Amino acid sequence: MLTAIEGVYDNGQIILKEKPELTHKVKVFVMFTEEEVLEQPENTKIAVSGTSMKGTLRGAWKNIDPKDKEDIKNHFENIRNEWERDI
C-alpha cells in the first residue's frame, strides 16, 4: 500500500505536513516537484530542525526544564544516529 504525505524540502530537511500513521519501519521514496514553496508557517513543522533544539520547543514544551530539554535533544540525536546507521 502506498501513502502520500505532502511536505517541503528546506535546507537539507524534509518537513512533513502531517505525521504518518505507521507503527513499523517502512521503505520510502522521495520525489521532488518543480513547485517552489515561498514560506511554511513554523507551527506546521513536525521535524526537529538541525542537530540541536535551540529554543524551538512550542506549546506544552516551551517552558520545560533545561535538563529535560537536554534529555529530549539527546533522545532525538539517538533517533537520528539509529536512522543513519548502516543496516
Care to describe what's here?
The chain is of the alpha+beta class. The chain has one domain. It has one helix at 66-84, and strands at 7-10, 13-16. A two-stranded antiparallel ribbon has the order 1-2. The radius of gyration is 15 Å and the shape is extended. The two termini are 24 Å apart. Residues 43-55 have low confidence and may be disordered.
Q: Secondary structure elements and their pairing?
A:
Blueprint lengths: L6 E4 L2 E4 L49 H19 L3
Task: Sum this structure up briefly.
This protein has 87 residues and is an alpha+beta fold. It has one helix spanning 66-84; strands at residues 7-10, 13-16.
| Percent of residues in helices | 10-25%
> Percent of residues in beta strands?
5-15%
The averaged pLDDT comes out at 76
- Helix and strand content put the structural class at alpha+beta
* Counted beta strands: 2
Instruction: Characterize the biggest β-sheet.
Output: 2 strands, antiparallel
Please provide the ordered H/E string of secondary-structure elements: EEH
Strand order of the largest sheet: 1-2
The value of Rg in angstroms is 15 Å
Number of helices: 1
Distance between the termini: 24 Å
Protein name: DUF2281 domain-containing protein
Organism: Arcicella rigui
Which descriptors apply to this entry?
87 residues, alpha+beta, two-stranded antiparallel ribbon, 2 strands, extended
